[in-house]
Design brief:
The strands form two sheets. The chain has a four-stranded antiparallel β-sheet. Strands 1-2 form a two-stranded antiparallel ribbon. By secondary structure, the protein is α+β, with helices and mostly antiparallel strands.
């Protein structure tokens, strides 16, 4: 089974494996993101202020806060980094909008791969939309739905010289 950093394996049956180049997978995700597939509560697209369509590493995401929680009526911005091993390895994620949430560093907004289930249990068949939807579900979890939040509109600061 080929699992180089630039390819991922999709198994339809235990007998046939299809290897799709990384950039084809990311182009497919870009197309779906641009079309706005889904319920409209999460969206994503390439961050063309940092990246180009050659590497397709830096992405932007948006999550509309879930209803009946402290996140309701808030819009959260995120940065997503899909390294050369994506989708075999999960992307790195950072909230741009300040949020108080279990599994998110309160100083940087970086989402912990060890504490957030979708990243901890990542599979190559998962997508950025899956990631955003799962983070939205986590916002509505008992640990997070009533947690006091920073003032709306505040942002985490970026590291100098780095898009994060």
């Amino acid at each position: 089974m080929l699992t180089s950093p630039h390819f991922w394996v999709l198994s339809f049956t235990s007998f046939v494996d299809y290897v799709v180049p990384r950039n084809f997978r990311l182009l497919e995700e870009l197309e779906k993101g641009e079309k706005g597939t889904g319920d409209g509560l999460c969206s994503y697209g390439i961050d063309d202020s940092v990246d180009n369509l050659v590497n397709m590493e830096y992405w932007l995401g948006t999550i509309f806060g879930p209803g009946h929680t402290v996140h309701e009526n808030r819009i959260y911005s995120l940065r997503i980094y899909c390294g050369e091993n994506y989708p075999n390895k999960p992307p790195q994620v950072k909230f741009v909008s300040q949020i108080s949430m279990k599994g998110v560093d309160p100083k940087t907004g970086v989402v912990s791969a060890e504490q957030i289930g979708v990243l901890k249990n990542w599979r190559p068949t998962m997508t950025m939309l899956t990631l955003l939807k799962e983070l939205r579900l986590e916002m509505a979890s008992p640990d997070n739905k009533k947690r006091p939040q920073p003032e709306e509109g505040k942002k985490f600061t970026s590291s100098a010289g780095h898009p994060w």
